[in-house]
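This week, study the protein below.
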Amino acid sequence: MNASVKLIEKVLPSTVNIHARVPQDHLSAQILGAERMGSGALIDPTGYILTVNYVVIGAETLQVTLLDNTQYEAEVAAQDFASGLAVLKISGNGLPCLPLQSSAELHPGDEVFMVASVGEEGLRVNGGGITSLGPFEAYWEYCLDRAIITTAMNPGLGGGPVLDMVGHMVGVMSLNLNEVGKFSLAIPVENFTEHKDELLRYGRRVSRPSRAWLGMYSYTFRDHIVVAGLLPGGPGDKAGLKSGDVILAIDGQEVSDRRQLYNQLWSHRAGETVSFRIFRNNAVRTIQVVSGNVEEFFG
């Protein structure tokens, strides 16, 4: 890793450990667990912390620990389910914070490094190069128009800062990809900075229209979308979609990859009915799904 010791020492105090406790009966507990640990980054001296949403969904209590082992009770200030970011707030003043820099200044091949909490063992740092800066879609109805994919392997818990070589925070570490040359995915910070006032005022992106959600996991196989699983009690499950269903079309529009599927699905608002043509048990059938709102489902 090429980040200097002096630079690393400068950014370490702004990275925090997050400990979330979620009620056992919360709908997120069955897939994410009732006790979660994550990393986060202080982005404001008054105590705002940027992290990933999956760490804090449904949290009943949140405890934040700084590098010097000072502990704070935190609350969720904002959640953005579309980008996967969340903002926490602790009471403080004059706290060490990281400057934010748009990923638009980055290019493939640029070096970055990341800092992550490893729980009670403190913090770890790792570095690498940017592999790509482009669209990314995942199997759980998630898509970014621009994602930071890097060879830097996350050294600890998700949610920590990804930084350029002058110490500007450019992204939030989200996923371990574990692919050759593509070890980690980060969410660019502009998903927060471009909507900061709205997020901190309302706690969510109120200006963005709601979009249909199914609670479905999927994968692509030979130019077809296959249902890999369904969240129990979610809209897709209630409507009768099943694991193994092959999705042929949505609203009569054929879909052959997840991006097409998501774009067609998200042309609907939450609560609208979406028509699926599927292949199951050697037969083609149509299933009508009354879509849901992921924010309300996990709220």
User: Anything to note?
Assistant: The domain at 8-96+196-202 is CATH 2.40.10.10 (Thrombin, subunit H). The chain has a mean pLDDT of 95. The longest helix spans residues 258-265.
